[in-house]
Design a protein that fits this description.
Blueprint: H1 23-31, H2 35-67, H3 87-137, H4 140-144, H5 148-190, H6 192-199, H7 201-239, H8 241-246, H9 250-301, H10 315-356, E1 378-387, E2 390-400, E3 405-409, H11 416-421, E4 431-436, E5 439-440, H12 446-452, E6 453-456, E7 465-466, H13 467-472, H14 480-489, H15 493-497, E8 506-507, H16 516-530, E9 534-538, H17 546-560, E10 564-568, H18 572-575, E11 580-585, E12 588-593, H19 595-601, H20 604-612, H21 621-630
Parallel strand pairs: 3-10, 3-11, 6-9, 9-10
Antiparallel strand pairs: 1-2, 1-4, 4-5, 7-8, 11-12
The structure holds adenosine-5'-diphosphate.
Adenosine-5'-diphosphate (ADP) binds near residues 144, 413 and 418.
């Protein structure tokens, strides 16, 4: 099958405009690249319907022409010479037509399902990939404000609900239309006044359906929201199962899951109540319509047409009418299903649309050029930054020469991580600029920037896969030798060798469990393999035991010698030998110098140093009071080495 998913460029066109309006229609026009399958399905639907209408016509004709001899056996499109002249012969013709129609109907039904299903599956696939890609391109801040379960439910439940509608809904709509038009045309041809009676319920049904959609729409939206809530709760609990157990919080959590389930149940019941009233309502209306057709037609066949109607109605034509009027019921009930599915799909569609129509806050400028690192000099120029209005960095100004190793220290929450997350543009500053060799990081391509800035976080994420795959992540073409070299530098080689399958051991979720320090070393190896021009180590060795850290330090010194390196650390021994140390306090750089110079200054850094060397007695009172106020002091939180 030809692929109809155009490889999407990494640029992020703003589609919010085109996504206004009906989400289903947008979906069809934007993602319906596999429309030819829908066309095949549509043709088969109409054809199948046309053949499905033949039997009632032939039965009526057979009754009139063969049993009652009221009309001649005239088949449309069939020349008379092909029609036999005995009644039994005609009966065989009727049977043959019925069988033929059934056979064609069966084939058409297969083709119909095939066409619509392939179409819907393709839309589903493309929509999911596209929604994921867009989500992935959104800035980190977006994810901080979202719950994982909610996003999952958009990518799964909502996309699937749309698929269901595209598969069944569109074909059913066409089926209903073909049936109603086909039957309408035949009935009007047979007996126009009686046809008018039979078609009478249609406007009533339309009005009733409109009322239904008005009532059900908000309910389906709230169901989709409750699914998101429930998913988030479940996802959160499965991830946090260790805490739940160790805190004996099972009962509490069961209660919370029950509450979220209750909310979902209540939302569902509200919709169900309306839905279960709608379907019997449809039945009642069309049932009354059918009864009226039967009454008027019956009286007419008996020679007493009501309402001043004139002319004759043959019993055969009446049989055809009755069968068609019955068949009319089905599409109308199915129409109810379609409308119901449509309303669900619309609710799902608007949520998917919510993702698709977002433009990421951090993205390549149209004229972005690749970053060119010459020296690796980094400047922060009057940088201010706030998380959702909460100021974190204020007027941060500093310049670092290329190749320098810079230690960044300060109390917890001072903004150290945030500061360095601005470098690879995980966030953008609200004011001021971050520059690498004079180039504003917002003017260069994200790809080149992130290629040049290696960021190792304190809690690195490992994917489910082998050790090798995890180290190679981001440098996908790396060979085994390079991977091993990087692992040796990060002091990871030895423990990896001792894993059951060495570099091929499965780790991450469902894999061998690694300690925090081991995970950190793999993350370090991953970044060393990438060989970035600028290195950011955000508490990257905090969980590694001091002995191993010392070994890493010697390797790092060599690795960092000719590249600009930022090291955030609580343990001051980690940054002691840095060329320069920045002390961050409350979002500002308050001290800046070498270890010795900062001790000389006798400020915050000197006090941290006293804490860590156990010289608590000589700490100034003001420092302790401030530390107490913060309830969090660097160095006093004696972090445990877990490997
Ligand atoms: P540090 O690395 O010095 O401990 P951070 O940069 O992690 O400090 O955090 C600085 C402040 O910003 C803290 O008050 C923290 O609560 C807040 N913060 C950090 N990350 C986020 C986030 N994603 N959303 C909102 N606030 C955040």
């Amino acid at each position: 099958m030809p692929s109809d998913h155009e490889p999407s460029s990494h640029a992020f066109p703003d589609r919010s405009e085109s996504w206004s309006g009906n989400p289903i229609w947008r979906l069809y026009t934007t993602y319906g690249a596999g429309r030819r399958y829908a066309v095949v399905g549509a043709v088969a639907t109409v054809l199948g319907r046309a053949f499905g209408l033949i039997p009632a016509f032939v039965i009526g004709l057979t009754v009139d022409a063969i049993f009652l001899a009221e009309r001649s056996y005239a088949l449309p499109f069939v020349p008379d010479r092909l029609v036999p002249d005995t009644d039994v012969g005609l009966l065989y013709v009727s049977i043959a037509i019925l069988l033929g129609a059934a056979a064609v109907g069966a084939v058409a039904s297969w083709v119909e399902d095939w066409g619509w299903s392939v179409f819907a599956q393709r839309v589903q696939r493309n929509l999911r990939v596209d929604a994921y890609e867009r989500l992935q391109d959104l800035e980190l801040a977006y994810f901080t404000g979202q719950r994982t379960g909610d996003l999952m439910s958009v990518l799964n439940n909502d996309v699937n609900a749309l698929e269901t509608f595209l598969r069944d809904g569109l074909s059913a709509t066409l089926w209903v239309l073909a049936t109603v038009v086909g039957i309408g045309v035949i009935l009007v041809g047979l007996n126009a006044p009686l046809a008018a009676v039979t078609l009478l319920p249609i406007p009533v049904l339309a009005a009733f359906t409109l009322l239904f959609t008005r009532l059900i729409e908000p309910r389906y939206l709230s169901i989709r929201e409750e699914i998101g809530d429930l998913n988030s709760r479940l996802e959160n609990n499965v991830s946090g199962i260790e805490v739940i157990k160790s805190e004996s919080a099972e009962e509490f959590e069961t209660e919370r899951v029950a509450e979220a389930s209750d909310a979902y149940l209540v939302a569902n019941l509200a919709a169900i109540k309306i839905r279960i009233t709608y379907f019997p309502g449809l039945n009642v209306i069309s049932g009354i319509g059918f009864a009226i057709t039967f009454l008027v037609g019956g009286l007419w066949v008996l020679g007493q047409p009501p309402f001043g109607l004139t002319g004759t109605l043959t019993p055969g034509a009446f049989v055809t009418f009755v069968i068609y009027a019955q068949q009319f019921l089905w599409p109308i009930i199915r129409l109810g299903d379609v409308v119901d599915d449509y309303e669900r799909a619309k609710a799902a569609g608007s949520r998917v649309q919510g993702v698709l129509s977002r433009t990421p806050a951090v993205l390549d400028r149209p004229d972005a050029r690749p970053l060119e690192v010459t020296e690796g000099a980094v400047t922060y120029d009057a940088v201010r930054f706030a998380y959702a209005g909460e100021p974190v960095l204020t007027d941060v100004d500093f310049a670092v020469d290329g190749g320098t190793t810079v230690g960044v220290v300060g109390p917890t929450g001072a903004g150290k991580s945030t500061l360095l997350k601005l470098l690879p543009r995980l966030y953008d500053p609200d004011e001021g600029a971050v520059r690498i060799d004079g180039q504003d990081v917002r003017d260069v391509t994200l790809r080149s920037l992130r290629r040049s800035v290696g960021y190792v976080s304190q809690e690195p994420f490992l994917f489910f896969g082998t050790v090798k795959e995890n180290i190679r992540y981001g440098t996908f073409g790396a060979g085994d030798d390079a991977i091993e070299r990087a692992a040796r530098r990060a002091q990871a080689h030895e423990f990896v060798e001792n894993l059951p399958d060495g570099y091929d051991t499965m780790i991450g979720e469902r894999g061998v469990k690694l300690s925090g320090g081991q995970r950190q070393r793999l993350a370090l190896a991953r970044t060393m393999l990438k060989d970035p021009a600028i290195l950011v180590l955000d508490e990257a060795t905090s969980a590694v035991d001091t002995e191993t850290e010392a070994l890493i330090q010697t390797q790092l010194a060599e690795f960092a010698a000719d590249r600009t390196t930022f090291v955030i650390a609580h343990r001051l021994s980690t940054v002691r030998t840095a060329d320069r140390i920045l002390v961050l306090d409350d979002g500002r750089v308050t001290e800046d110098g070498t270890h010795e110079a900062l001790l000389e200054t006798d400020g915050l850094y000197a006090n941290f140093w006293r804490v860590q060397t156990g010289d608590i007695a000589s700490l100034p009172r003001a420092f302790l009071e401030r530390a107490l106020r913060r309830q969090a002091v660097v160095g006093i939180d004696d972090r445990t080495d877990d490997d």
